[in-house]
Amino acid sequence: MSPNPQHKAVVVLPTYNEVGSIQSVVTGILDQQTEISTHALHILVVDSRSTDGTLEQLAELQKKHATVSLLDCPQRGLGRAYRAGFQHAMDQLNPDLIIQMDCDGQHDPANIPMFIHIIQHGFDCVIGSRFVSGSQMVRFSRYRTLISTLGNGLIRWSGRIAIRDCTSGYRCIRASILKQCQFSRFRTTGYSFQSSLVSELTRRNARVMEYPIIFDERAHGVSKLRMADKWDFMLNVLFIFMNRWRR
User: Fold this and answer.
1) Pick from 80, 156, 166, 87: which is nearest to 127 by CA?
2) 150 Cβ neighbours under 8 A, 6+ residues apart
3) pTM of the model as a whole
4) What are the start-end ranges of the E strands in 104-224?
5) Given pLDDT bands bounded at 50, 70 and 90, which one contains residue 182?
6) Beta carbons of 28 and 43 less than 8 angstroms apart
7) Torsion of CA 164, 169, 171, 176, to 10 degrees
8) Rounded to an integer, what distance in angstroms lies between the CA atom of residue 241 and that of residue 238?
9) How far is C-alpha 7 from the geometric centre of its chain's CA atoms?
10) Domains of the chain
11) I need a surface site. Which of 18, 121, 135, 192 has the fewest CB within 10 A?
12) Whole-number Å distance between alpha carbons of 242 and 172
């Protein structure tokens, strides 16, 4: 299939020391272009000063693929990376769609064509969900599954959000509704950015669909979750709750 150059889907891919997976993830995303006729795929890697060889591998990929670009994000924090990546994509790349996904191999790029197909049927956001019928979490301990379930329950309760997976990092979003989001209102710089964004999309009356995914344990690297991120999550739950009453 030949993509329509008038429409672009930008995959914003935050990285920090992803040398074990950067090549397979980037090539896996680009391989999906043959299944997408409506949008040209572009990858924006937002790197927070990786020191393990990630940038060297990315430079080699950029030599082969003109649709792969790099944005330097000096400060760590998933929220910082996404805010910088979204803003850069909307200012410089003129996307119709923006896709969020992790670079640790837990998100299967093969879902991208389906996300793009679904969003064209009247939706503003498609979430790759771990908590709807048909989804599966592979090789996760009961403890980690319980923590994820309880965390999502807190977000749903605090913001009265009718979405099962508020913390999923795999999403396809219309750029037009992202432009309406007030990122300056977010009180998080880490992983809680995901739940803040869901809350903001809900506030904007976005039409959201959850699509079941198979979520596997990472094949390379280690979790970047820090203790500061856990405190950040709890404070963000309180912030979302307060915003609900202000609305």
Assistant:
1) 166
2) none
3) 0.89
4) 125-129, 136-138, 171-174, 208-212, 214-216
5) confident
6) no
7) 110
8) 5
9) 20
10) 8-246 (3.90.550.10)
11) 121
12) 27
